[in-house]
Amino acid sequence: MPRGEYLRYVALGDSQTEGLGDGDDTAGLRGWADRLAEHLAAVNPGLRYANLAVRGRVADQVRAEQLGPALALRPDLATVVAGVNDLLRPRFDAAEVAGHLEEMFAALTAAGAHVVTLTFPDVGKIAPLARPIRSRVFDLNARIRAAADRHNVTVAETARHAVAADPRLWSGDRLHASPLGHERIAAAVAHAIHLPGSDDAWTLPLPPRAVPARRQAVAAELRWAAAFLGPWLGRRLRGQSSGDGRTAKRPQLLPLSATPDSPADTGQWESS
């Protein structure tokens, strides 16, 4: 497939790829994968696009539930982004998570797809209370790069650019990208695959912003913990996921203009 001439794009992943933080379950989710599909369709009007991502899924669930259907769709471009939900679990194993990702890289590339993945930004700069898991993020990123290198997978290196951790690129829950964040991720992937018309403008910092006083910052952290962290921990203790009962929003390859109905909302947002 000549560079940029992609006609069958399939996205695999969790809520970030599903599009949480960019729209809602009533009006519909957009998200970086949808935005990337728009960039692809501008170059190749015949593009067909499927999005198999489901919120709340950890890496082994993405592999078990989405890899087979993705291979059946015979994509020439596939994005695989998973692992954030694993990072937040008490028993996180970076080697195991990277192993699930590598299985998907290997199977999709062997089937002839150009596979693209992402690295994750420093979560400690997005949510200070998440600083204890920074080392997990760095470890997983290193393993993603190594696995990608073994299978000729393209990596959009969002982790290596400071703007990726700018809070303005993240929604109020600090776990999902904001519309601007999803826009930047889509631009990063388009640039990584050298899509015509793409460039590195996505790496540019946002205008300076006022730094809140310490008291205001502490108050904001407490509000965030009460509104988002507490409910998330409660779901973990109950063994619940916001992805329970949900299916992919776009399970078939369709022209971008053909938008299937989204499944009914069955729960709150998952971590990723």
Quick summary:
Helices cover 41% and strands 12% of the residues.
Q: What is the global morphology? A: globular
The average pLDDT score comes to 86
Strands of the widest sheet, in order across it, are 7-6-5-1-4-8
Low-confidence stretches: 262-272
Q: Which secondary-structure class do the elements indicate? A: alpha/beta
Number of E-state strands: 8
Major sheet summary line: 6 strands, mixed
Portion in helices: 40-55%
- Approximately how much beta-strand content do the residues carry? 5-15%
Radius of gyration: 18 Å
Written as H for each helix and E for each strand, in order along the chain, the element string is: EHEEHEHEHHEHHEHHE
Spatial separation of the terminal alpha carbons:
32 Å
Number of helix segments?
9
How would you describe the overall organization of this protein?
By secondary structure, this protein is of the alpha/beta class. It contains nine helices and eight strands. The chain has helices at 15-18, 31-43, 59-72, 84-87, 94-110, 123-126, 134-150, 179-192, 214-237, and strands at residues 8-13, 23-24, 28-29, 48-51, 77-81, 114-118, 154-156, 250-255. The protein has a six-stranded mixed beta sheet, with helices on both faces. It has a two-stranded antiparallel sheet with strand order 2-3. Helix 2 crosses helix 8 (179-192). It is globular. Mean pLDDT is 86; it is low at 262-272.
